[in-house]
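User: Fold this; C-alpha cells only.

Assistant: Input:
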Amino acid sequence: MARILIVDDDPALLRLLSLRLRQEGHEPLEAASGKEALACLDQGLPQLLITDLRMAGMDGLQLFDAVHRRLPLLPVLMLTAHGTIPDAVLALRRGVFGYLPKPFEAHDLMAEVDRALAAARTLGADMPGAEPGESWREAILTRSPRMEQVLAEARMVAQTDAAVLVHGPSGSGKELLARAIHAASARAGAPLVAVNCGAIPENLVESELFGHVKGAFTGAVRDRPGLFVEARGGTVFLDEIGDLPLAAQVKLLRVLQEGEVRAVGGDRMVRTNVRVISASHRRLDDEVAAGRFREDLFYRLNVVALELPALAERREDIALLAQHFLATLAQRYAKPLAGFGPGALESLVAAAWPGNVRQLQNVVEKCVVLSAGPQVAQALVQRALANQASDLLPFDEARRQFERDYLVQLLKLTAGNVSHAARLAQRNRTDFYALLGRHQLEPAAFKPGL
C-alpha cells in the first residue's frame, strides 16, 4: 500500500482516481488545486504525486517545479488531455516521471502507478550486483542516462589502444573511469599505474615517469624504473595532465611518438608498450590557447575524449551513491544503521555538490560517524552540508601537508639517504633533519629491503 497524492480541479475525475487507487489497496490523498497539494505535503510525505497538467491557478508544471525543489525524489505522474501531449513530453525532459493521456483505462493508470512506485522503492534499495560480463564497471554506480552513455563509449574505446583524455570536474570519478577502461581492455591482466602529475615536484617529474640510473644526479643511489616501465604491457593513467610542466610535456610527447623511454642518465632506449589515459579538470584546449600546454601533445592525448558529468548533472545517482556509501561506511565504523531517515535523502539530492562524488562520500561519512540512532536523520545531513564550507584546509595546514608529501617523495627517490635528499632539496643536513623530525619521518623506513 502506498500514500498517493492526487491533484485535479475536476471533482468528478478526482473522485474517480481516488476510487481506483483505493480499490488497488492504496491510500489516496485528494487536493483540488496546486495550493491544496502543497498544503498536503506539509502534513505528510506521499510516495507518489499524480496531477492534472491543465488546472486553474497553479497548473501541473508549476506544481511539479514547486514540489521538485522540496522533494526531488518524489515521482510525479502527469494527466494530460490529447491536445497537451506535446507539453507533457516537455515535462518529461524537466524531470516528470511519466504522463497519462486522458481518457485512460484503469489498467493503464495502475501500470503507470506501479512503475512509478517501483522506481521510488529502488531509491532506498541496495544496489544490485553487476550484471554478468559487467564486472569491468562494477565500481561505478549509476542509473544516469548521461553516465551510461559515457560508459558505453568507454567500453567501445577499451577494445582499442587509442589514447583517451577524460575531462571532468574534481571528484567526479576520472580515475574510476580510467580503471574501468583498463579492466575492459585486452591489457587488463597487466598493471595500471596511476600518477597525479600535479603532485610530483617539478625537478622529479622526468625521473618519476621515465626512471633514472644510479649516479644520474645527486641522490640517485640506485637504478629506478619509471612508471612507464612499471606499467609495461598495461596502462599509464596521467591524472591532472594539465599540471605537467612544459619541459616534461616535450619529453612525454617524444615517448608517445617513439614508443620507448630513456631513463635519466641512461644510454639505452627501452620499449614501453603502454596505453595512455590522461585526465584533467581543466579544459586542455583552453590551456593550449593560453600557451600552458603543447598543442602537439594535446592532439596526441586527445584521440578519444570522454566527458564525465558533474554530480549535480546526474542527480538521479545521488541517492544511489549515498546508500552505497552509507552501507560501506556503517560496516567500517561498526554502526548499526538501517538507512536514511525521512527527508534526509531529499536534502542530499537537493544540495549543490561542488565537490562532486568525493564530497558526497565525505558528507555521508560525517553522518555515519556522528549518527546516534538507527537512521541518519535529516537534521544531521543538513548540518554536515552546512559545515562543508569550513572544510577547506587553513593555509598553514595545507603547507604542512605539502611539505610532508614532498619529503616522502625525496626519501623514496634517494632510498632514505638523507645527505642526497638534502642536496636535492637544496637544504643543509641539519635543517633537513629538523624537517624530518617535524613530520616524524624516519629515513631508515625508506631504505631498500625494509
